[in-house]
Structures are given as C-alpha cells and as structure tokens.
Prior knowledge:
The protein has 279 residues and is of the alpha/beta class. It has helices at residues 4-13, 24-35, 47-56, 75-79, 138-148, 164-177, 197-207, 231-242, 260-266; strands at residues 18-21, 71-73, 86-90, 96-101, 104-106, 114-117, 120-122, 153-158, 180-186, 216-221, 247-251, 269-273.
Amino acid sequence: MADAARAAELKAASVEWLSLDLTPSDVCDLELLLTGAYSPLDGFQNSADYESTLANRRLAGGIFWPVPIALRVKETFAQALQPGNWIALREPEGLMLAAMRIAEIWQPEGETLFCLSGPLEGIQLPRHYDFERLRISPEAMRAYFESAGWDRVVSYPLDQPLSRAGFEATLRAMESSESRLLLHCLTGPGTGAGLDAGVRLRCCQAVMPRYPEGSARLALLPLPAHSDGPENVLLQAIVAKNFGCRGVMVAGSEAQRLSPAHERELGIQSIPSPHEESL
C-alpha cells in the first residue's frame, strides 16, 4: 500500500487517467492482492502467468497457483490504452482503491474481453460498513496468532451456516491436530448458495461461544468463487497458509483434491470435514 504522501500524489495525478469501475469480484480480488492473502501474487496476472495457470496450475516461473486472477475489461476500454499508461481502479461508487501502470494488454484465447496487467499501488482498501472487526488482514491475523501463542491453527473456509455436525467436526479436528481454529466465513461473489452473507456471519457468531475459551476465532474472508472445481479448494489452502494456518478443513470428498503432493508443496495439511447442509 502507498503511504499517505504517495497516495495523495496518485490521486491528484488520476484526474488525467482513465478510470475503471471494478466488478464486485474484482474488488474482492484486489483487496486480497493488496493485503497479501493471494501471495505470491501481488497484482493481476499477465498473459504468461494466466496461460501457465490454466495449463499447468503454475505461474510462469514455476510456483504453484491454481486459479487465474485476471482483470478483464471491454474491448473499447482496452483500445483506449497502451503500455505505460496509468489507470485508476475504483469501486462502483467511485472511490479510488489503487493505481495500475499498464504493462500488458492482452486477450485470452476464445474470449471477447481483454485483460490488463501491470504493477499495482494500493491507495486504500474497499470500504465496509458491517462486521468491521471481523475483517482482518493476513498480517494482522498472523500477529494475533503469535501474540496469543497459537502455534498450530486450522482454517475452516465456510460458505454456509455452521451446522451441529460441522461444529462437532471442527472440535474433533482441533483435538486430533492439537490446533486452534480460524473459522473463515466466505463472503465473496458466488459463495453462500444465495444465502445472505450477513445471515451466515450472524449464525457463525452465535456458535462461537460454544467453543472452549481461547480456542477459536471468527473472521470474514472476501474470497470469490472462481471455479466450481477443485481449484477453489486449492486456492483456499493457499489463502489459509498466508493467514498463518497450518491446516485447512475441506468438505467430504473435496479433501481428496488436496493431494499429499499439494500438501508438501504448499506446506499445509488438509483435514476432511462433513459436507455442510444449510440450516
């Protein structure tokens, strides 16, 4: 993120730039890029990383990465740009979140939209007016784990209310792995099967007092659903690792999607849990 002086400089310069109103999914991806939740990514993918991700689940440099994270724009917008130009990335309401210096303008094969890539400079994170205390960055979460003496933490990425079976499964996972729990409620576009994120979060808040004191923490994660396949599980594992977790719970048969080879390379253990049914 840019410091205050640099942010003011970029905002002043942006009056001469084109602005891009981001989609809700783009806003979530940008927030996760700026906070380090998507590390090793620090910006939207260029064509080499994008194509390598699709073909091999790896970035062009060989690092494992399961899901393309691209910034798509319409052809008319792409045609107005050239490498070296700056653009302002904004929320739909107009708030400037980041500046991008265009390095590449490209079109994925078979798509009508174009993609932009280039270095990002964060201005500020997206505005949120609800559940502010649950919006915790990876850096802040890792610092909390350290200060609390939580050496081993299991993440449970959850996109629906926590059922009785799910609650008991987390207790068993915590006991068997001698870990604390990070209950990560997913709120990005495509999650929740149509159930409002606020409802799901309040359901999770109601369950938290049932955990032994000092054993679990609830947080909100604006992670979009990028795929219906195993890639989402792999991305959740990477994000969990970036938050300082050493294990990730995944539902039922999805646990098979994080193979021993993935566990070794990513440095995180997968723990099966029952598939959650909405309450």
